[in-house]
Design brief:
The complex is a heterodimer. Chain A is mostly beta strands. Chain A has no helices and eleven strands. Chain A has strands spanning 4-7, 10-14, 19-25, 32-38, 45-51, 56-59, 62-67, 72-77, 86-94, 97-103, 107-112. In chain A, the strands form two sheets. In chain A, strands 2, 4, 5, 9, 10 and 11 form a six-stranded mixed β-sheet that branches. Chain A has a five-stranded antiparallel β-sheet with strand order 1-3-8-7-6, with no helix packed on it. In chain A, strand 4 (32-38) and strand 5 form a beta hairpin. The relative contact order of chain A is 0.33. The mean pLDDT of chain A is 96. Chain B is globular and about 40 Å long. In chain B, the strands form two sheets. In chain B, strands 2, 4, 5, 6, 9, 10 and 11 form a seven-stranded mixed β-sheet that branches. Chain B is 0% helix and 48% strand. Chain B starts with a strand and ends with a strand. By secondary structure, chain B is an all-beta fold. Chain B is built from no helices and eleven strands. The chains are: A mainly beta, B mainly beta. The interface between A and B is medium-sized, with 26 and 27 residues.
């Protein structure tokens, strides 16, 4: 069935360093790729998304890249801050129903001050 | 607040009991989704409503799980004869429509079956 693989499962960086999280998806019909941040005891919150007609998207310290051919997409966080510490999930869906998401397994990011 | 609201925040029930979990979506959002998140995992899709009707229930694990949305707003997820394996966080999300729109998640209901 449809699947999204996410790596790494845990990531520890020093404050100010960059963090990169990578995902691959199996369903070539997927064309919407959001990234969610989930803090302890809270629901996932959308931080950035990308659609398949775009290769890269940036929002301040966060960027996402998409390689449709390889079915890879990545999240890049620059100048990390302690408040970036959380669990990050990638997901994939189709534009016909963008809320029906296949999630990756999550990456626990720890930013050390 | 204007976000997705889920009640209760926590629910502890005994094995074999029936439980109901409630979701209040963002006002005006026609699409509503239920997800289940086990410890250390990503959320897994359960069911999708467009208005009052369940348009896609392909993620419901078995017939002990059922959800309704009678007036196209509030939704209730119902679990019969609960099992310990049902323990998880149940998340609700809503969006303005189903196509090309962001899904907003609630904080979830943590269900523990003892």
């Amino acid at each position: 069935g449809e699947n999204v693989e996410q790596h790494p499962s845990t990531l520890s960086v020093q404050e100010g360093d960059s963090a990169v999280i990578k995902c691959t998806y199996s369903d070539s019909a997927s064309n919407y790729f959001p990234w969610y941040k989930q803090e302890l005891g809270k629901g996932p919150q959308l931080i950035i998304d990308i659609r398949s007609n775009v290769g890269e998207k940036k929002d301040q310290r966060i960027a996402v890249t998409l390689n449709k051919t390889a079915k890879h997409f990545s999240l890049h966080i620059t100048e990390t801050q302690p408040e970036d510490s959380a669990v990050y999930f990638c997901a994939a869906s189709k534009s016909s129903n963008t809320g029906k998401l296949i999630f990756g397994q999550g990456t626990t990011l720890q930013v050390k001050p | 607040g204007a976000g997705v609201s889920q009640t209760p925040s926590n629910k502890v029930t005994e094995k074999g009991k029936y439980v109901e979990l409630r979701c209040d979506p963002i006002s005006g959002h026609t699409a509503l989704y239920w997800y289940r998140q086990s410890l250390g995992q990503g959320p897994e899709f359960l069911i999708y409503f467009q208005g009052t009707g369940a348009a896609d229930d392909s993620g419901l694990p078995n017939d002990r799980f059922f959800a309704v949305r009678p007036e196209g707003s509030v939704s209730t997820l119902k679990i019969q004869r609960t099992e310990r394996g049902d323990s998880a966080v149940y998340l609700c999300a809503s969006s303005f429509g189903a196509t090309n729109t962001e899904a907003f998640f609630g904080q979830g209901t943590r269900l523990t079956v003892v």
